[in-house]
Sequence to fold (241 residues):
Amino acid sequence: MLIVKKFGGTSLMDAQRIITAARRAVDAAAQGNQVIVVVSAQGHTTDQMVKSAGAITQIPSEREMDAYLASGEQMSAGLMAMAIQSLGQKAVSLTGWQAGLLTDSVHGNARVTGLTNHRIKEELEKGNIVVVTGFQGINAAGDITTLGRGGSDTTAVALAAFLKADICRIYTDVDGVYDKDPRKFSDAVRFEQIGYADMLTLARQGAQVLHDRCVELAMEYGVKIRVLSSFRPGPGTLVSE
Fold:
């Protein structure tokens, strides 16, 4: 099987959490799967970077902000690849442009348009777990672009779509998709399975577990998504037809 695993910022907050996520990837590879890991920036890194830019200028260039903010995910990718290697498994980290994730030219809120090279496949064939930076791609002019809110989820689903992965597993701080926020409502009910249309409705109503653009892409390409907790075991929620 080809499996895409995405880990968000809370799942990568510190060294121990990165190692825990790395172990999930290594375990999947040990079962004979090819594995792609997509990572967000650690914790509140992006917010801190935006604040730092604001101390320089109140009207930053959109192009330069994308070039700057993309480095948060690049740091996570390097750390994740090192963590996987420390567990005895081959790994390589790739930026969005190295992976060939092509976007339009809307800086700060770009849309994914395709995958332009075979680097990921080549690295998988070498036996590597491939760690790809989320939230970013490259436009036709060769400039770094970022994908906006939920961009790492979109990256994961896009790679699963273009590479025809068997499943895209998105690890987050909740153990699935609920009818309402389980962090606020004790009577929230977790879905074992939910269709794309219903998931899209929840996303557009403000459910933060998956971004609507990510769900739209999954629906278009028929990508199966399983939403899982990074912190406790469980079946999570399958998002599919």
The CA atoms of residues 172 and 229 lie 5 Å apart.
